[in-house]
Amino acid sequence: MPWLKLLHFAALLCWCGSLLYLPALIASSAQGAHSRLHPETDYPVRVVFTLFATPAALLAIGSGTLLFLVAGQWAGWLILKLAAVSGMALCHALCGVLVLRLERQPERALSLECSALGALAAALVGITLWLVLAKPQWGPA
C-alpha cells in the first residue's frame, strides 16, 4: 500500500503541474511562435500533453481508484474529492481541445480561453488538496 500511495502522489504532482502549465504553454504558443514552425514535428505543446500529462493523469486516476477501493473508504469528503478530480479531468480534456485548435489555427489568439482554463484548473487542484488534507467530516465517516 505505501508504494501505491507513492505512485499516486508522484503521478498527481506531475498531472497537477501539467494542468497548471499547459494553458500558459498553449497561450504563449498561440501568440505567433508556431506560425513559422512545422506542425508535424515542432509542437512541444502536443508532446507535453500526449507524452507527459495524459500518462500522469491516467496513473493518478488509476492509482487513486485502487487506493480507495483497497482501503474501503467511503466518506463525504471523498465523494467531493472525486467530483473535483472529475473537474480536473474535464480541464485536461479541454487542454486537449485547445491543443487541437492551436494546431489547426496557429495564429488564433487563445489567451482568454487559456486564462479561464488555468484559473479553473488551479481552483480545482486547490479544492482537491484541501479536501485531502482537511478531510472534513460531512456525513458518515
From TrEMBL:
Keywords: Cell membrane, Heme, Iron, Membrane, Metal-binding, Oxidoreductase, Transmembrane, Transmembrane helix. GO terms for cellular component: plasma membrane. The keyword ATP-binding does not apply. It is a multi-pass membrane protein. It holds the Pfam family UPF0093. Its main location: membrane. Binds 1 heme b (iron(II)-protoporphyrin IX) group per subunit. Pathway: Porphyrin-containing compound metabolism; protoporphyrin-IX biosynthesis; protoporphyrin-IX from protoporphyrinogen-IX: step 1/1. Its cofactor is heme b. The keyword Iron applies. The chain crosses the membrane at residues 6-26, 47-71, 77-100, 112-133. It is found in: Cell membrane. It comes from the Bacteria. Its EC number is 1.3.99.-. Belongs to the HemJ family. This is Protoporphyrinogen IX oxidase. It comes from Pseudomonas flexibilis.
